[in-house]
Amino acid sequence: MRTQIVREYLNKKGYDAILISNIESLFWLFERSIDPRKYGSYFYSDFLVYIDNHRSVVILPEREKQLISEKLENYNVDYETYSWFRGPIDIINGLSNNKKLVTDCITFTKLPDVEYVDSDFKFLQLQFSGKEISRLRAIGTLSENMLYEFSNELETGMTEIDIEKILKALFQEIGLEVLYLVVISDERLEKFYSAHSTGKKVKRHLVISLRAHRRGICVSLSRSFFFGKVPGNLAELYDKSAALFARSAYDFMQINKLSEILKRAKSNYASIGYEEEWKNFDVNSSARFGIGNLSPLMELNFEVMENMAFSFSTPLKPARNEDTVLLRRSSTAELITLGNNFPKIVVNVENMKIVRPWIMEL
User: Fold this and answer.
1) 223 phi and psi, to 5 degrees?
2) Which CATH superfamily is domain 3-124 in?
3) CA 358/CA 351 separation, integer angstroms
4) Ordered per-residue pLDDT tens for the chain, 362 residues
5) Is-contact 35 24, C-beta < 8 A?
């Protein structure tokens, strides 16, 4: 449990206590060893955690005390329960009496003298521990292996939606939750990047993009397939898309400001005559299971640090290049979702060789 990190944050910011309710924050607080979504909505949990410099208190509904306390028996926490018809407000007021309280839940900022956490609290949650990095690697390997094994089942005439349904079931069997999975094929690739799968039958070219998750740790990747020999014009676009990704991965290793990495990506697109395509460049943190929730970080001088992982997607209609990258230390990164199965090409960036997946010919 990351209690000490939270207390250091409180002391640095001049707060006396914090009330944590956001699902992603709870995943992080308990080092992703429990899934708080089981006890609440998609964004907020039924149980809250109050932390000050002296104690950690789990505030939870009476009906769930036994269930939740069993999950948390290895943690040094106290418990306060509330009935469903009264709610937790009286308990919160009692614990935080005369204290400067901060929270990650907008609802509780309506209480007197309660402030909302700043971006620094969210930044803390993006850095993985050694144990979490091991899980990240396992999720990345499992995800790419599943796509590779499933490629043997791909046939022309299958519908996009059928491919999606089968893959989701297979991921569920290996214990991974698919947060996002889309299959796009043929002429639809000229129009869409992030869309939904349809009942259209696959003819020659398809791209499978997904974001898989287990206990708050996520990976994103895309892989491309072609029935027959890849035509030269398509291969050229994939070359360019792979080069754009490699450049972004290189910048990720060299630059410690996310906003600067994004500026470089925009410039890279413009340098090859695809400035409009930049709008589809995408970044996601592997420590956040939501989609598209990095916008506030992009606009700030958010510092990228070692043991953070991000997925980069560099589409060029109809090509797409996407993988998850872990920053190990300065100028060193690891492609979490790139194994040995798919065909590959090597992209030279400055003095570095970066391996990228190539289209699998079926």
Assistant:
1) -135, 145
2) Creatinase/prolidase N-terminal domain (3.40.350.10)
3) 22
4) 999 999 999 999 999 999 999 888 999 999 988 878 766 555 567 789 999 999 999 998 888 788 778 888 889 999 999 987 788 999 999 999 889 999 999 889 998 889 999 988 988 899 999 999 999 999 999 999 999 999 999 999 999 999 999 999 999 999 999 999 999 999 999 887 667 999 999 999 999 999 999 888 999 999 999 999 999 999 999 999 999 999 999 999 998 888 888 889 999 999 999 988 888 888 888 987 654 445 555 555 678 889 999 999 999 989 999 999 999 876 789 999 999 999 999 999 998 999 999 999 99
5) no
Rounded Cα–Cα distance for residues 273 and 266 (Å):
11
Q: Residue 222 and residue 56: Cα distance in Å, rounded?
A: 41
Asked whether the beta carbons of 18 and 55 are under 8 A apart, the reply is: no
Query: Which pTM was predicted?
Result: 0.90
Encoded amino acid at 336, one letter: I
Q: CA dist 274 to 179, 298, 302, Å?
A: 29, 21, 27
Whether 9 contacts 121, CB under 8 Å: yes
CATH architecture of the domain formed by 130-361 = Alpha-Beta Complex (3.90)
Closest CA to 48 of 136, 111, 5, 108: 108
Q: Rg for the chain (alpha carbons), in Å?
A: 22
* Helix segments in the chain, DSSP class H: 3-13, 23-29, 65-71, 89-95, 119-124, 130-151, 160-173, 232-254, 258-271, 295-299
Where in the chain are all domains bearing CATH 3.40.350.10?
3-124
* Amino acid identity, position 347: V
Question: H/E element holding 211?
Answer: strand 205-214
Which positions ≥6 away from 355 have C-beta within 8 Å? 335, 338, 344, 345, 346, 347
Structure tokens given for 132: 């979490």
Contact 223, 198 (CB under 8 A): no
